[in-house]
Design brief:
The complex is a heterodimer of chains A (about 400) and B (about 425).
Chain A: E1 4-7, H1 11-23, E2 29-33, H2 56-66, H3 71-75, H4 77-93, E3 109-110, E4 116-117, H5 124-127, E5 136-141, E6 156-159, H6 172-179, H7 182-196, E7 201-205, H8 213-224, E8 228-231, H9 238-253, E9 257-260, E10 264-270, E11 273-279, E12 286-289, E13 293-295, E14 305-307, E15 313-315, E16 322-323, H10 343-346, E17 348-349, E18 369-371, H11 389-404
Chain B: H1 25-29, H2 42-50, H3 72-76, H4 83-98, H5 102-108, H6 110-117, H7 121-127, H8 131-141, H9 157-167, E1 178-182, H10 184-189, H11 192-204, E2 208-210, H12 219-223, H13 227-246, E3 251-253, H14 256-268, H15 275-283, E4 284-286, H16 287-296, H17 312-318, E5 323-326, H18 329-332, H19 339-344, E6 352-354, H20 373-390, E7 394-397, H21 400-410, E8 413-415, H22 417-425
Parallel strand pairs in B: 1-2, 1-3, 3-4, 5-6, 5-7, 7-8
Helix pairs in contact in B: 2-4, 9-11, 11-22, 13-15, 14-15
The chains are: A alpha/beta (about 400), B alpha/beta (about 425).
């Protein structure tokens, strides 16, 4: 039997496993996920409350007072603060260096389409945006349809990196693997120099190395003699892949059991206690027993929640009641990514301050079942869950681990 | 998200392509993509090409031949697309269109060569290490001269088993619970010691082992696109073994990849949906899975000796190092966790750690093909480097071709988990315990 079983390999699930290791290095931890999770389709930076001006944590505390059933309110501001600090520490150990110094302020970053985003914490690849200066030069690769630098800013350059002709398109990961090679970086820097003129910095799509990201940044910065930074690309996200790969090694080396592939079919309960879960495996279901379970399977997009065209929404593993709008008209708001939020993004399960999901009667469904991340309901009227996606994932994962590891 | 379980018809392998969002998670995880320009990735040749595939039209894309079939794409897909299975079916269609390949036919029929070669073991073992012969085989057949071939043991597991039964070495206690041992081709002809250890470990835990007639799992045929013959082997196995499964007699095997063929590929790749196939899939276990289940029920004997009581030659190999464990791709496809690692954790003083590396590269017969050899070596390079950097001289892996490949490329001795368990139990085959 495992001390802790985590379902989901997104931001919340992976962080929960790492946080649990820090709390109890000898705990038997297992992480089960159907496929690779959210990091690989998100920019790889950390949004805590993008709309916050000034001290982000103060703004979160303000949000908490206005929305007492918000995931941030349930996890509590101290959990968010501790989670950010611990995540920054772990990310530094895996070479990604997310910064989370207090007081936390949102920073301006560039995007591929020229819009501005304001996440709170960045891995090293995005950090150079702070020194972009007045004249950043946006660099793209000739013929690559995933990124066209003229959409990012006025000054741009298209270069032809030394890649053999392939009869198909390259993914961001392909480029990143090329950038892992110092000779390739040198060649790119060489090709770029004639375009530099008086550029104050150079922005690349986020493909600057996969396994040797820090070295790649350093090599380019040295060769170009200006700050170098990345912009998020279309999926698969290389910054997210770096995070996933880094955490995977971190967890495996510390003997966490990590099994990506088969979905958990259902939870197994004995009265008010979860005794384990059943995985839909080859041939027959496989049972995994655990003293505590953290459910971090995500929302409708992540695979934690399901819906049908009768307007029903349900949670697939434990049958936890979902808070949602049954009126399907409201599911089809014309502004999918509206800053004020969209009803479907707020759907989720309700929980108490221990992160125990609540049954229809408002009581915890099981004493040793906990939730973290996007599966949690956001109150209608609260800001869009997207502007705080990673912050909520980390804070709720931290709080869920705190509660779960206190289980007998 | 659509719930797959609600829509059974969408679970049919080709239809799972409809769940593909084109997110490219499979492409970034594919171990073949980074090392060659000949393979555009599992998404491109799989879900993407699938809509151009018509049973009556020629294959739209020949690069699918460079898919190694490791199945990592299927594992990492968050949407339930059976990417590897789609690609393996496309490979079979391509193989049928291309016509007969002597090399693929030879590699696909390893079941025959194992048994036929046994009486000529010394000659063949010499021949397969005789460089001019291997050079000839590469030039004429396209079988890589660099690939590590196993050695014929000179006797078969089944022969040993028959002699042992005749001798009455183990009293037939009818009251003992029965397990069926599925040995597979490699254990039968090349590594009978693994079968001998497995049988003794099962007996040590109170079981009566039976070894009914059985055929090759068919995986080498399947990965070479020879589906018709693979299905013949599959039917032989289901006919021989499904009845045991129905009676609740566990069927236990020592090759993670053969067992996966019986557990999953018969249905999802070869398209066999009959009741026998389903019963067998339910009733067959990888040996570590089986033993770990026993342990969870409190029934596994844990009279394990610490590493310091192991035979000196094994102790010397382990030294103060961790024991790197590689979970083969086909073992990950079971969805059963890492039972071998869980079992190794029960052995006092042993510290096994799963290597953070995907495929070792060999992928069954893939790395034996001359044009794919370099790919197989490059795919596994991160794993070989990790093992070398760990300083370990002894590693563990559950499937045979992976073991041989990792041993050749990393220089470490690579054992099956039952070999370490046997040392811990103090069980030896009648041949040297570590055949290194």
């Amino acid at each position: 039997m495992d001390d802790l079983l985590i379902i989901g390999a997104g931001w919340a699930g992976l962080s929960a496993a790492a946080f649990a290791l820090h709390r109890q290095p000898n705990a038997k931890i297992r992480l089960i996920a159907q496929g690779i999770g959210s990091p690989i389709v998100t920019p790889g930076w950390l949004s805590v409350l993008d709309s916050a001006k000034g001290d982000v944590l103060a703004a979160v505390r303000d949000l908490i007072t206005r929305h007492p059933d918000h995931p941030y309110a349930l996890a509590g501001a101290p959990a968010l603060e501790s989670a950010l600090r611990l995540f920054a520490q772990i990310s530094t150990e895996i070479g990604l260096g997310y910064r989370a110094e207090l007081p936390l302020h949102n920073t301006h970053v560039f995007t591929a389409l020229g819009a501005s985003q304001t996440p709170a914490s960045l891995p090293i690849g995005y950090q150079g945006a702070a020194q972009a200066g007045a004249q950043p030069l946006f660099v793209g690769f000739a013929g690559w349809r995933d990124y066209y630098p003229a959409l990012s800013g006025g000054r741009f350059a298209l270069i032809t990196p030394p890649i053999s002709n392939r009869p198909w398109d390259l993914t961001p990961t392909d480029y990143a693997r090329h950038f892992d090679q110092p000779a390739f970086c040198e060649a790119v820097a060489h090709a770029l120099k004639p375009h530099l003129n008086d550029a104050t910095s150079v922005a690349f799509p986020a493909v600057l190395g996969l396994a040797h990201h820090a070295e790649t940044l350093q090599t380019l910065q040295t060769a170009l003699d200006v700050p170098v930074f990345e912009l998020p690309t279309l999926p698969p996200s290389v910054p997210g892949t770096r995070l996933f790969n880094g955490l995977r090694r971190y967890l495996l080396d510390r003997r966490v059991r990590l099994q990506v592939g088969h979905p958990v079919g259902c939870g197994v309960l004995d009265g008010k206690r979860v005794v384990g879960v059943e995985v839909i495996a080859a041939g027959k279901p496989q049972f995994f027993g655990a003293k505590a379970v953290i459910l971090a399977t995500g929302n409708l997009y992540g695979g934690g929640l399901f819906s049908d065209d009768y307007g029903r929404v349900w949670e697939g593993i434990f049958g936890i009641p979902v808070q949602y709008t049954a009126d399907r008209q409201q599911w089809f708001n014309a502004h999918m990514l509206d800053e004020r939020g969209h009803a479907v993004h707020h759907f989720g399960v309700r929980a108490n301050t221990h992160m125990q999901p609540l049954g229809a009667d408002g009581e915890p469904l099981a004493e040793n079942l906990f939730v973290a991340g996007h599966i949690m309901a956001h109150p209608i009227g609260a800001p869009s869950p997207f502007e705080m996606a990673e912050g909520v994932a980390l804070a709720t994962a931290y709080r869920a681990v705190e509660s779960a590891l206190m289980q007998p | 998200m659509t719930e797959l379980r609600e829509l059974p018809y969408l679970q049919e392998t080709p239809f799972t392509a409809d769940h593909c969002l084109k997110c490219n998670i499979c492409t970034q995880a594919c171990p073949v993509v980074p090392v060659t320009d000949l393979f555009p990735g599992p998404k491109t040749v799989g879900p993407q090409a699938q809509r151009f595939r018509d049973p009556d039209l020629p294959s739209p894309d020949h690069s699918v031949d460079y898919c190694s079939g490791c199945g990592i794409c299927t594992l990492v897909c968050p949407h339930g697309v059976r990417v590897m299975e789609i690609n393996t079916q496309a490979k079979a269609q391509l193989a049928a269109a291309k016509g007969f390949s002597l090399r693929n036919w030879v590699l696909g029929h390893n079941a025959w060569w194992g048994v036929l070669g046994t009486p000529f073991a010394p000659l063949l073992n010499w021949l397969f290490r005789f460089k001019p012969f291997r050079w000839m085989a590469e030039k004429t057949l396209g079988i890589s001269a660099r690939a590590a071939f196993p050695t014929w043991a000179g006797y078969t597991f089944r022969g040993w088993w028959r002699r042992r039964q005749k001798r009455g070495a183990v009293p037939a206690e009818e009251s003992r619970p029965v397990v069926v041992y599925y040995h597979g081709c490699s254990t039968n002809s090349y590594e009978p010691r693994i079968g001998k250890l497995a049988v003794q470990i099962l007996e040590h835990n109170g079981f009566r082992v039976v070894v009914p007639p059985q055929a090759c799992c068919g995986l080498p045929l399947q990965s070479n696109g020879l589906f018709a013959e693979a299905r013949q082997f599959a039917r032989k196995n289901t006919q021989s073994l499904a009845d045991y499964a129905r009676r609740g007699v566990p069927i236990v095997g020592t090759s993670g990849s053969c067992i996966m063929a019986l557990k999953g590929d018969y249905e999802h790749v070869l398209g066999l949906h009959d009741a026998d196939t389903k019963a067998l899939a339910r009733g067959i276990y990888d040996i570590s899975e089986f033993l770990w289940n026993l342990h969870r029920q409190g029934k596994l004997k844990t009279d394990f000796r610490p590493v310091s009581a192991f035979p000196p030659e094994v102790r010397a190999l382990i030294g103060d190092s961790i024991v790197p464990y590689h979970a083969p791709c086909q073992l990950k496809a079971h969805g059963m966790g890492r039972p071998a690692l869980d079992l190794l954790d029960l052995i006092p003083e042993l510290r096994a750690v799963e290597m953070d590396a995907e495929c070792c590269g060999i992928a069954g017969t893939y790395g034996y093909k001359a044009e794919k050899r370099q790919i197989a070596e490059d795919v596994g390079a991160p794993l070989f480097r990790r093992i070398r950097e760990s300083g370990a001289q002894l590693a563990v892996c559950d499937t045979e071709t992976c073991r041989w490949h990792i041993a050749q490329m990393s220089g470490a001795h690579v054992l099956h988990p039952v070999e370490l368990l046997a040392h811990a139990y103090g069980i030896t085959p009648d041949s040297p315990a570590v055949s290194v």
